[in-house]
Amino acid sequence: MTDDLAYMTGHAALKAFRSGDLNPIALMDATLARLSATEPQINAWTETWPENARRAAEAAAQRYAKGDARPLEGLPLAVKEEMRLAGTHRASGSLVFRDRVDDGTDVYIQRLIDAGAIPIGKTTVPEFTILAATHSRINGISRNPWNLERSPGGSSGGSGAALAAGATVLATGTDIGGSIRIPAACCGVTGFKPSYGRNPEIPPFNLDYYSHTGPMARSVADLALMQNVTSGQWEEDIASLRERIILSTDAPADLRGWRIGWSADFGVYEVEADVRSNMMRALEVFAGLGASVEEVDFRLPREAPRVMQDYLEHLAGAGVATALPNHRAEMTDYAIAFAEASLRSTPLMFYNANQMAAELYERFGPMMAKLDVLVCPTIGISAPPAEYSYVNDRLVFDGSERRMLQQEWCSTLLFNMFSRCPVLSVPSGHDRLGVPTGIQIVGRAYHDESPIAAGLAFEAAQPWLDRPENRPLQRL
């Protein structure tokens, strides 16, 4: 097994499968070998099914031989643990649900399986998926393959870590405050939050407009491949969009005529010097592709990050709080803190959060109408410490240790509030310690194709993970 095979993108693997240059069994063997070699050091998985996965790879090889391969035939898939897959555990990172086994499969996962992707295991999440880091009492601490003292981010942290480690080709995530994009940035991979409703979700989470399900991978093309089989209306999700957009996997020759706006911090977010400088170099790449690049004048009110967090605490926190009366002793300190915050929340706070969303978009929408995409940091740091939480919120920022609430450095949440805007996270470089940083490429409402096209052009001009020296420094 070589690193090159384990780090092959799905797009490249499918071409090789079709030409006969590669067999799905060989890719699966390389992926499972890499998974075995990097566990338990990274601790990205809650359960794996290597024997089932290899049998499925053998069946995929037969489909290619017969000429009836499906769009994702034979590609290994990591499933975020909070998502339902029949016959597997779904503890949601909590001792409270340690014994829960699902008898059904989420529509998002089923569509990937129906397209030929092969589930190989479930990936770790923080308790109740409420944190921008991934650790829990039931699964322990998940670690960043680039630096084991850092977190892979959250809440789709296990998916991000598995991708960065070469232990899967595709992965799934959910995103209510940045939970796809944060791990993508922390781990140096890609993640896409589609427009609200583009991918169907299970009720009642489909009715929360902050909530999204989406793909994670090591290339933008792979995200497009996944989106092309998962989007579209589902009869059980009233919010799912009837319109299906087929995303190209081919990079534009250039970005001539594109208008790209950017902001480093929207006037309120904390951004480390390395993150900022990496974003500026990324903007130079876009300019080199022919795009017009200019800073936008869009500043958020100082209280905006806190008000967005109020929304999450009021709605998502209410669900967590139902566990307090009977399960407090089993819960993490950060889940308890989140639940208790929800108990202090009021209807007026929730109303104010929605009122702010409406008022801010009255400025943001017309600004975006003049742009093709907007670029900003995914998060203001490279990756938090492995045990970062609401309670243990100390980190090193520009060389100095300090306390920082996650809403101070997670600019992802802004685009859950602007939920109809699709957002792609791609790697922008590394910090001075070699940990990845990321940028968000934001599209106009429901224009999912724009950030994907810009991301394809960007990754063609600035490849990542393409050579051994560009892969995680921590050799496991």
Automatic annotation (TrEMBL):
Lineage: superkingdom: Bacteria
InterPro entries: Amidase (IPR000120), Amidase_CS (IPR020556), Amidase_dom (IPR023631), AS_sf (IPR036928)
Boundaries of every Amidase domain copy: 27-449
GO MF terms held by the record: catalytic activity
Family, as annotated: Belongs to the amidase family.
Protein name: Amidase
